Fold Polysaccharide deacetylase.
Amino acid sequence: MKRTLPLWTAALVSFAAGQGLSPLPAPKITAAGEVQLVAPGQRPSPVIPTLKLTPPIPQVKTVEVMNNSFTRAAHALVLVSAQEAQGSLVALATQVTTATYRADPGLAEVDVSIYRAGDYGGFGGPLPLLTLSVPVGRRTTFANELKAGSYDRAWVGAKTAAPAPKLTPLDELERLPVFAGTRAELLAEQLEQALGLVRGGVRGGKLFRGSPLKRQVALTFDDVPHPMYFPLLLDLLRREKAHATFFIIGRNAEAYPYFVLDLVAQGHEVANHTFHHLRLPGLSAAEVTAELKTTNELITSISGQPVQYFRPPGGDYSAQTLKIAEKLGLTTVFWTDDPGDFQNPGVETVEARFARRLRPGGIILLHDNAPDGLMALPDLLRVARQRGYVVDTVGHLPR
């Protein structure tokens, strides 16, 4: 019989005391191994401001604009008909970019994603037909380069209709590690987690925590890269002179390869978050292998960097997941500090949760596409440094 139960401290204490193990209801927000209370005042996702293009471009569904308190970036979502998809999309992308800069000359970057209207299922669904990123410094030159085929911040996908997906991407974001297995496997895994959290270091191909003796923490971001948020996130990290490990979704890297190059150029670390952001315990060994191996190969082909770390979507994993990851040379990385940025609790709540959970050898879990986490990041780094912590990548975490 298969059991899928959250791994958390209360169950470990009960097991260690010889009182037996019973499933407990999973909290809404949890750090690895410890329940975290949900703060009051949870909010819906904030409404992102939009730009109005003049004159309007019929294919443009929306142009969203965000800032990180220092700079602004825009992302234009463009939907085209099947007939338009067969024509040249370069001219349309150029038109949209130029019109967006004209609508807001203070933008630092404009990103464009063009989808076939019949395929579009939201970000994370079928791949776009074309993507484009134009920093303000290349605003006057990109059009000629793009026309000549020499522009390095554009990606062109297949023009044929996207096949129906065989597997459903996981909509839920990471909340707490959840192990799927038999009762005996679960008990063994809980013991491994307890030892990993207390002692730190890699155990059985898993990293729950770095060294508890060093005031150093790893900063990690999941679900990378997103065309609206990622340029603003990189800008903040550059300003703060901080480095992080980015757990990359393969399909996102395929559509936005220039962002992967950007993060490597800034000294950040690449890591694997599967190709389609799938719940892995329900897949066959062949499917899990394909999700991880394809992503490894894609990231390395883009960045030139080897991939050493992996995080399962949703924190869901099994013995099969661990075995395949280890066979592919990947260490499975969890977390100790989850401020719950994806629940939009408010910037102050994200900051308070982070400060409460900060500990030597900690692994901080944030998300590329969470506005509260983006806005809280400078204060998170300030608090960590004021307390004497070094903030760096997973690869630099003392073991």
